[in-house]
Amino acid sequence: MAARKPFVGGNWKMNLHTAEAHALARSVATSCDGREVDVAIFPAFPYLAEVGTVLQGQPQPGVMLGAQDVYHQSNGAFTGEVSVTMLQDLNVTVVLAGHSERRHVLGESDLLVNAKVRAALKAGLEVILCIGETLEQREAGQTDAVNAAQLCYGLAGVDPAQMSRVTIAYEPVWAIGTGRTATPQDAQDAHKAARGMLGHLFGATIAEATRIQYGGSVKAANAAELFAQPDIDGGLIGGASLKAEEFIGIVEAASNATVKG
Ligand code: 13P
After folding, report:
1. Which of 161, 201, 228, 235 has CA 20 to 30 A from 19's CA?
2. Model pTM score
3. Is residue 132 in contact with ligand 1, taking CB distance under 6 Å?
4. Which of 208, 205, 206, 204 is closest to 191 using CA atoms?
5. Sequence-separated (6 or more) residues with CB below 8 Å from residue 131
6. What CATH fold (topology level) applies to the domain 7-240?
């Protein structure tokens, strides 16, 4: 069975401008080279080209350029949206879909998330599908049901052969940007249940090979204990990805974690 290489993403969200984005991309690119971890950074749309140039300029480009969102239509009258081929023009190789801020702040539906997942995969991109429950849902005992539903909707119509380009990010909404991290055991339980759902959808082999990142107030100081869990395959990092030292510390923790799968 294929081992799951840890995968760490830095989701910069709506932060940083040209000079800071350039400097941070440079630090990440020079420090994360040659580790046994996949690393991607996700700048805001206006800085994708700038950051892409920095990453491509490395002697051995190893950090992937990611986009925080994508629209599923190929072109046309969709004011404000960005297509898959526009992202590919800028050497983007991985996109986020269904981030909780897009679901809960911008009102994205499961249907739209699924359209984005399918369009990105069809074009050959990698996708990180984000799932996770709100505090209210957790307190009502609905964590696994919410995650299962978001996986079913998000991955509907995805071909099993495309699953090698899909990563899941479990990001409990109540842990995002709050400083309140899920305990390693709570995160592990949710990851295990999500992997079980992937098994129902695509079979045990694909479920075992699919990486599931944890996201929600991950820092260099708590990354190792999260990444030590058997079903946690790296992280999707928000706030701590804006500081080179913190982010590099998290990548280091992932590279020290035992290989799973
Ligand atoms: P924080 O690491 O800031 O909690 O954000 C997590 C996240 O939303 C990554 O996509």
Report:
1. 235
2. 0.97
3. no
4. 208
5. 98, 146, 147, 150, 151, 154, 168, 169, 170, 171, 194
6. TIM Barrel (3.20.20)
Ligand 1 contact, 40 CB (< 6 A): no
Instruction: State yes or no: is 139 an active-site residue.
Output: no
The CA 162 to ligand 1 mean position distance, Å, reads 26
**Which residues are CB-contacts of 78 (< 8 A; sequence separation ≥ 6)?**
71
> Which is nearest to 44 in space by CA: 242, 246, 190?
242
Q: Where are the domains of the chain?
A: 7-240
Instruction: Name the token pair of 32.
Output: 């994360």
Is residue 99 annotated as a catalytic residue, yes or no?
Answer: yes
pLDDT (tens, 9 = 90+) of the chain, 261 residues, equals 468 999 999 999 999 999 999 999 999 999 987 778 999 999 999 999 999 999 999 877 799 999 999 999 999 999 999 999 999 999 999 999 999 999 999 999 999 999 999 999 999 999 999 999 999 999 999 999 999 999 999 999 999 999 999 999 999 999 998 888 889 999 999 999 999 999 999 999 999 999 999 999 999 999 999 999 999 999 999 999 999 999 999 999 999 997 787
Under DSSP, is residue 194 helix (H, G, I), strand (E, B) or coil?
helix
- Count Cβ atoms below 10 Å from residue 161 Cβ, excluding itself: 9
Using CA positions, which residue lies closest to atom 2 of ligand 1? 238
Alpha-carbon span 250 to 241, nearest angstrom: 9
Catalytic residue chosen out of the listed positions 171, 191, 246, 252: 171
